[in-house]
């Protein structure tokens, strides 16, 4: 039988909103729900048809493809053979109050929506480790040694979980499927096997050291390289140093999160460093040279231009944060001009003479707020 247009199935126009589509589907689903129509094949087919239509029109991407190309645009995206697990969350909202929704759809649309009961080699869990670094270590990089606990392969059983190393055996209850089915009239509901807990296999003689899990806790000590320029809150990933994977699966990763301790003299903005230096007002007026210590502990000379104002920023290229390609950001030095709180008699005389000589330029005046050094 030819498929009907999805909008026609739900009884909505092509301009319908997402909420209108959901409301229309809910109405049809309740009307043709197998609970209300036991043994009615027609109702079951209408329920499937409405669900298929909603699975497409309720998804923005699929709806756009359907609007452009019709059924060809969503071929393989919908239908009774589809794995409906991707839309279960949306359907559960629609069918709140209808009991075990996932079990029902597993029986209606086939085993694709159910969790398979076979034993899988699962990926090990990732682990997190937080570390605080001094400011300069984060800027220039370092190597740190850390200790933490992780799941490791049990040496006694080699990860099999079995005391006699015979490994797992097929669960006799579910015959290895991991699922048991319970029939009730129209329904055939699949549920995880209560014996093997959905694994499909069991261990008859569990290893005493790992209690059958194949994993034991181990204290791990490793050295981690922190690259230059790492920022506060960033992480360094160490592959394969997380928990071992169950059933022989690959290990997870270790994520080392960096917390940078503030520095008393320097701060960072992007790839640039900022610091401050105080100079006397004579050097500010006449210009000169000052020597400062860099973050690395080197001494560098900084030229102070004549007439330097309080709050002026001086830029030193290549003395900032290391970046890729061997380059570095810049160092910005904020100048603070110190005014002496006490003067000698001779010093006062000199300044009085300066005031008389430069009287016009030393007169106070209002300053625009935008021109005040921040």
Description of the molecule:
The protein has 374 residues and is of the alpha+beta class. It folds into three domains: 6-113, Helix Hairpins; 121-161 and 213-262, Sandwich (HSP40/DNAj peptide-binding domain), CATH 2.60.260; 267-371, Urease metallochaperone UreE, N-terminal domain (HSP40/DNAj peptide-binding domain), CATH 2.60.260.20. The protein is built from nine helices and 15 strands. Strands 10-11-15-14 form a four-stranded mixed β-sheet. Strands 1-9-8 form a three-stranded mixed β-sheet. A two-stranded antiparallel sheet has the order 2-7. Strand 12 and strand 13 (299-304) form a beta hairpin. Helix 2 (18-32) runs antiparallel to helix 3. The longest helix has 17 residues, at 41-57. The model is unreliable at 78-89 and 96-118 (pLDDT under 50).
Number of strands: 15
Structural class determined from secondary elements:
alpha+beta
- Strand numbers in spatial order across the main sheet: 10-11-15-14
What is the CATH fold-level name of the largest domain?
A: Helix Hairpins
Largest sheet: 4 strands, mixed
| Distance between the first and last residues' Cα | 77 Å
Proportion of residues in β-strands: 25-35%
Unreliable spans: 78-89, 96-118
Order of helices and strands: HHHHHHEHEEEEEEEEEEHEEEEH
CATH superfamily of the largest domain: DnaJ domain
- Average per-residue pLDDT, rounded, comes to 82
What is the overall number of helices? 9
Number of domains: 3
Helicity level, as a percent range? 10-25%
